[in-house]
Design goal:
The complex is a heterodimer. Chain A is mainly beta. Chain A contains no helices and 9 strands. Chain A is globular and about 55 Å long. Chain B is built from no helices and 9 strands. Classes of the chains: A mainly beta, B mainly beta.
Amino acid sequence: MEALKFAKLEDRVEPLATQKESSLQLDALPGIWLNTDGDTRGILKVAITSQGPKLKLRVFEAAGPDSRDWGEVEAEHIYANNIASQLAAGFTARYHLDHAEIHLQANWNQGLLVLASFTSFNDGNKRSNCFAREFFHRQ
Amino acid sequence: MTPVTYPSSQEQTIATGPIHPEPLLGTWLNTNIATRGITSAILSRQNGQITVRIVAAGDPGPSDWGETEASLFTADASSSEAMSFSAFYDFGFMETQLQAHVRQGVLIIAKFERFKDSSGRSNYFSKEFFYRAEQ
């Protein structure tokens, strides 16, 4: 049997330890996730739904007394928390807003959804591209 | 859906200039010397670009992933000090998205690994922690 290629030792596993189908169980991620910081000026809420093997998310951002809906996007990729797991525990997604591109990366850990956002501005204003990391609990 | 056409309240500020990479530049070593993942990350400036070079645990010996461009990010839109970067490696059979940030002097690298071969390995997420090597 041909050895599997790997870029680092943790990617090297016995072929028998893997499965023919790598689709992940999505049970841990769908739901409404609320920021643990009720006074956040960033992301207030994330609504995640599963549709077959796909995840869709809808982000609501703080906007004064209201929230701003970024709309729904499909997760780019879904990840387990280890190479042999079949349980989805993270995802990446990308929003193309009028003023910025925002790359989201999320992981689920001990009941918390940890969401990192990488914002690259494209509107010509002199703002620095910025990073934020926020924590969410289930509603 | 309400289209988003303007920045959020936390983004309505002006930075003082380009992002300074210095807080990230240098060699970062994994806090776990027995790691089977990334052993070190070297960030440097070359011809105005910031690059990262990853060295991982391999067999036999270390696996040098080579250099790739790093995109820098600050803690907020008005800051000019880099505290985060992202980078991407494509190995053909798999690709790795690195997303890293510094917190209290520790560089935390999140790795999103996606396999493109038919090995059946799960795409997976992991984090590793790094400290700055002495100059």
